[in-house]
Amino acid sequence: MKNLMSRQRPALRTSWFHWDNQDGTEGSRVVRARRIGTILSAAALTMLTIPMDAHAAAIACGGGVSTGRVAVNGCISAERGKEGKVITREITAHVKLRNSGPTAVDVSYEAFFRVVSGGHWVKLGSGRTYVPAQETVGPTEVGSSTRPCAPLKVEIRVHARVAGGVWSGWSTAGTAQCQT
Fold first, then answer.
1. Among residues 155, 173, 168, which one has the least CA distance to residue 61?
2. Beta partners for residue 105, in sequence order
3. Alpha-carbon distance 20 to 14, whole Å?
């Protein structure tokens, strides 16, 4: 039986990348390779989570309405742009649909846009999608409009209907066009 006191002690950490044993020999290269691999993997994952477009627009959803067992939310996003010397804002309407029923349904939807101070409603787009049972679909882009920047509030409204059903009420969302 070996003397327990003569066992070599584990490596002591003297810095992040350098491990020494008490006799001055270098620690395991496998341990060092794993540590470096872990650091590089973490750096790569961090780079994947950083958005590539720094001016990407956030989507804000308005209040919900329903048509039968499908809940509808109208959502809006505004992304800044430039065409020549004119600063623009691309207003995009989205729809978010939640099916609370036990069966899947086909849903049709429409989106409209207007400038709040005296503007009239203009259709941005329409579409149809399949919403599985007990699932949420979206936000799905319905349409967009590019406007020159002005200190005006804009809003969108969205409504939907299940195949063969009636149209829901309006779900609205708004934004100030050229906020920073």
1. 173
2. 131
3. 7
**Alpha helix (H) ranges present in the chain?**
29-49
Please state, in angstroms and as integers, the Cα–Cα distance from residue 131 to each residue in 40, 98, 177, following that order: 40, 7, 32
What are the angstrom distances between the C-alpha of 114 and each of 45, 175, 176?
A: 41, 11, 12
Q: In a 3-state reduction of DSSP, which class is residue 16? A: coil
| First vs last C-alpha separation in the chain | 76
Least confident of 3-12, 50-59, 134-143: 50-59
Taking only the tens place, the pLDDT of each residue in 28-61 is: 666 666 667 666 665 555 444 433 333 446 787 8
Element counts in the chain: helices (H) and strands (E): 1, 10
Task: Write the CB contacts of 179 (distance below 8 Å, at least 6 apart in sequence).
Answer: 78
DSSP annotation of 5: G
Put simply, whether the predicted model's pTM sits higher than 0.70 gets the answer no
Local structure of residue 10 (DSSP, 8 states): P
Length of the chain: 180
Q: Which residue has the tokens 């996003």?
A: 77
Both tokens of 64, joined, read 């919900």
